Every structure is written in structure tokens, then in C-alpha cells.
Amino acid sequence: MAISDKHYDKDNNSIYDIDERLSAELNSSLSYLLEKNEEKFGKLKGVKPLIDCYRKTKEYKQQIAEQGILSFIVNKTIEELLKQVEPYYIGSIVRNIEIQTRIKKEQSTVEVNSKIDFNASLKPYVEFIIEVNKKESYSVKFTFQIETTAHVKKLRFTSNADEGKSIHIERIGIKIELSLLQVEFSDLFTSSTHISFNKKMKLGSKSFEIHDLSLYGRRVVSNKESMVCAKCSTINSLGSKYCTNCSFSL
Amino acid sequence: MLAPFSSILVYPTSYTLAQNATDDSTTTERIERTDDTSTMVRRVPDDTTPPVITVPENMVFEATSEDGAQVKYYIIADDDFDGRATLGKDGLHVQDDVGGDIAISCFPASGSGFPIGDTKVECMAEDEAGNPAEGFFTITVEDTTGSGGTTGSGGTTGSGGTTGSGGTTGSGGTILPLDSIVGGGDGGTILPPDTGWVAPLAVLASIVIGGIALGKYKSSRGRSPRIEIPPSALVEIRTKGGMNR
Predict the structure, then answer these.
(1) Can you give the residue ranges of every domain in chain A?
(2) Which fold has domain B52-150+187-198?
(3) Has the ipTM of the complex gone over 0.95?
(4) Which mean pLDDT values do the consecutive 10-residue runs of chain B (245 residues) have?
(5) Measured between CB atoms, which of A127, A133, A189 is closest to B234?
(6) pTM of the entire predicted model
(7) Nearest Cβ partner of B227 from A39, A52, A81?
(8) Are B123 and B105 in contact, with CB atoms under 8 Å apart?
(9) DSSP symbol at A8
(10) How is chain B split into domains, by residue range?
């Protein structure tokens, strides 16, 4: 039997917490790829009505005008992409490791020295929902594709009652290729949809490598699911956003 | 007979480029090569010129209440590629059929309540290629009577204008530094001079929920969809993400 039969909880969150460096590297890579395409992004037909609408928000006057409206939209897109992509990356890493190593659950510590390669293809979307007088009125939805190739070298899997499950990877290299697939404008009242962009536009690729990456399994205590803080190992109740001990984001 | 591969010589070819502007929208390039042949290429250059935004002169109004006054204005943006767009005093955006669309927005919007004192109105226009332009003007609301409004019988003063029913802002009378005023249901619709005013194109949906107009979505001839939102509407935008399987 493998490490786990599932990699996501009922809310589609990964059942593993991960070293925050993966999140930082993903953020950096997505930022790099989207920011260098900012001008191209801004010329998409679906972006123009979004820009018009942002200019009518309170936010625009308060903060967006200073940083630039397009940068603001790009940053929002990066933020949402990261939220969607990160748990799937963790799931992909765990799934591929377990498939390719066939680690048995009952084995307490296993070391794998061979190199593991895997690919993943994700299609995350980011939707901007425009509310007029508190009613959802329009949406602009961007669908992306992220192709990933990764290689893992030397990993150690640990499972015991005290520390729970964990995977330590000596070196992981990830290359992501980001493309925009579709831009869809919807009138939510009439359900009319206008697809203003529908082809694969490659935005670029970026590689990074992390050494000594750790993934920590979330523990189940007395039939009640809890989350273990990756920073200080305090057990927090399920649903907590921050660690009660060190305020680390769970 | 073909020369043996080893004897083929490649001479570098040099070109000179000459650009002749033929009219406002196209450029002719003459490519001259050293072998005395030349090719004329006519191309449409990229639109790198921002639109020209025309904003009203600074305006002075009398307060109609202790909060100030409601003021309406209009904006025009002209672009060498995308023609003319007008943001009417009621927030209606009108675009001509030339080229692409020009987006216009102003803050505070036309029809907003302006407090007593000076308020700087910032307007932005952006043509289809994304070239931005900005314009500013000041609206000053004065309270000379101390009672928040002057009395007036609906007269609107403008050079060469006609009056609508009830004056421009309904009560109080308003001085309009505009050239053309046409009577309308709400007391006069202000049309800018020489705008080539056209009817809105291909309005697909007019959204009214519970008697509150939420806006209009317009899509015409493959251009960017445009959302027309009344100036007084509250607009909020939130994001959400997901994963397509």
C-alpha cells in the first residue's frame, strides 16, 4: 500500500504541508512569467472591460492608481494562480514519488537514491467577478496551462507515531511552462459568454531547484483531523488558518 | 549546370530603407538593394499614439445643499486610429465606427455629488492599442448664499443653447460653460460641439434588477466587450480561482 490513498482533503487542499520555499519559488516563477508579458496581457480584449471596471471601484482610488492598474490585475492573477497550483504541486510530487517508489505504509523509514522524473499538466483559471450594486454581474475568466517537468533526487520517507509522515527530498528541480489558453467574458444575468481569446499563447518557461525540501503530513489524532504546524510542530485544529503557537500560516 | 557546392559564393546584400509618409495612417517603405532593384512595401504602422482627451474648462457651481452639488459633465477622446469616443454626462459611452474602441473613465464620475470647495476630476482614456492619456479639470462648488443653493426657475445659461425643462440640475440653476445645450427629459442633455454624436451600437443586454439599473454590456463586431455602468453604481471586484480537470 502506498503512503496515502488520497492527496487532498474534502476542500481539495493537500493533506501535506510543505516547506515554504516551494511556495516562494512558484510565486517567483509565476511572477516572472506574467510580469514579463504584462504588456501583451494588457492588450487582450477581455482585459479592457476589466480595467474599465476597476477604475470605477473604490480600490482604484485608494491603491491601484499608484501601482498601475495592469500590475494590480497581474498581481491578483499571480496570487490566485498560486493558491490553486501549490496544493496540486504537492499532490503531484507525492503521487509521483509513491507511484515510482512503491513505498509501503508500514515501512517507517525508506531512503530512495535513484532519480525520479515526472510531468504534470495543470489548467488553473482565475476569474474576476464584477459586482455592480452588490449583484454579481459580469466575469472575466482567464484559463492558463502549466506544464511541469520535475526531477527528484534522493528522498527519505519517514512515518512514525510521534512525528507523523514526512518526505525529505535532497534535491528537486522543477521547470514550469506557462501558457494562456482562453479569456472568457460572461454576462452573468443573461448567461451570454464572449470568448475573446481561445488559443494557446506561450508566456514562457522558468526553472528552479530546491535543496533539502521537506513535506510534512497532516496528522490524524483521535479520529479528529488536526493540522501540524510545519514550523513548530504544534497541533492545531482542522480549519485553523494560523498556528496557535507561532502564527505560522497553516 | 549547377556549380559544385564548394564553389558557391555568398555575397552580403545590403539594404537601405527609406520611409515616405503618404498619409496619416500608412507609411511606405522603399527597400533598395545594392543590385539596383527596389521593392515598395506599404504597411500600417503600430498605433503608438495616445488619444487626445478633451476635458471641460474648470467650472464653478453654486451649492444646492449643504453637501455641495451634483454636477454632470462630458468628455471626448479622439484617436488617430480609433476615431472618437464620448463619455456623456449620464455615463453613456458612445464610440464611432472608426478603428477600435477608446475607453474613457473619470473620477469622480459625472453625476456625482461634489462637496463645497475645489475637486480635481481626473480622467483617463485608452485606445484599442492600450495607449493611455490623462486629463484633469477642477469643479468648484461655492455656497454664496449660505443656504446651500440658489433659487432659479429652471434657466440654464449657455452660449447659443436652448433650455430644457427644469434646468440642468433641476433646482438651483447652473452655469454651463458649454456651447450646445439641447432640451431633454431630465432638464437638458449636454452635447459637445461637433461630436458626430451617434446612437449606441448593438446593446445586447440592459440589466435591471429590483428597479436598479446595474449596467449594460455591449459587444459589437468582435471588439472588446464593454460594460457600461451608471456613474452612481457601487462596483466591487473579487477574484476566485479553480482548476479545470
Answers:
(1) 16-217, 219-250
(2) Immunoglobulin-like (2.60.40)
(3) no
(4) 34 37 43 47 65 89 86 88 82 76 81 85 82 88 65 36 34 32 30 31 32 49 65 88 83
(5) A133
(6) 0.51
(7) A52
(8) yes
(9) B
(10) 13-43, 52-150+187-198, 199-229
